[in-house]
Amino acid sequence: MKNILLTGVGNALVDLEFRVTDEELQSFGVTKGGMTLTDAETQRRMIAALAHHEYHRCSGGSAANTMIAFAQFGGTGAYCSLLGDDHFGNYYATEFKDLGLTLDADQVKGASTGTCLVMITPDSERTLNTTLAVNTEFTRQNINEGLIQASEWIYIEGYKLTDDNGAEAVDLALFHARKHDTHVAVTCSDGFIVDVFGDRLRNVLKASDLVFCNENEAMALAGTDTVADAYRFLTDKYPNVVVTKGPAGSNIRWNGADAVIPAYSVVPVDTTGAGDMYAGAFLYGVLHRHHLEHSGRLASYASAQVVAQYGARLKANHIDVRDSMLTSSAKL
Predict the structure, then answer these.
(1) What is the DSSP letter of 252?
(2) For residue 99, what is the domain's CATH number?
(3) Which residues pair with 151 in a beta bridge?
(4) Which of 53, 102, 233, 298 sits CB 3.0–4.6 Å from 325 for a disulfide?
């Protein structure tokens, strides 16, 4: 019996968000606006260097952010990952319980929970420095066939393809999904996934029912110079596609229909989690049988509101946003 609408498979990271100057960011030698994988010791040194700043902490990881949004909009969800047996792991598990999400994540003794250092510069750009820690130990043994069998959909983040263990685990998740008629959604996650792990990603996309990517990822996947050409390429290859374009809105193919969704204008503060929020809101809409354009507008609005604030969690009441957007969109 399928009693879970959506299960995420991804990294479990505790997000530590700091506001920094451009000079502080440059001193760390990371690529502004990108995501850098680092070791635990380097991460500790960077966090220590920012100890004089106030920071915000919350449970995260790309797919986790999407699942949290999905659940807060009212969806039934679960998350499959791995935690360390430490204070960050305890914090993560407690928060997921409070959020009403089923968490399938062992806490490994002697291991550290992954962290993502989110650095926000005055221009609102976010730069991520991530140590996966125990997430690199996520293997095929951590894939729960019963959870996938009980799920209508699974949602896989491209970040899981950055190591052999994660890639093999994703392959097994796809196998179980096919076996139990569970639909598959995949997010490309980041441009470097396409550039460095493109072969793995394309193999996963072949088994997907829905692909999420931003405009740069779309053009990299398609090998084109324009978003329009990339969208045509992707919709020829995959049954359902979402391409987000920041302030230019988004293009969606869903169940054979196409929609151009406008962006909502805001003053940008922090771009962290905007794509994750878009995916969570859109999946809530379409998986609850709302009209394509209504679901797209909910996703576009919710992601814009995330950009207009600090942090990946929508600070407004999710149910109020959901009901307001789906009602107003239905009147268009």
Answers:
(1) E
(2) 3.40.1190.20
(3) 4
(4) 298
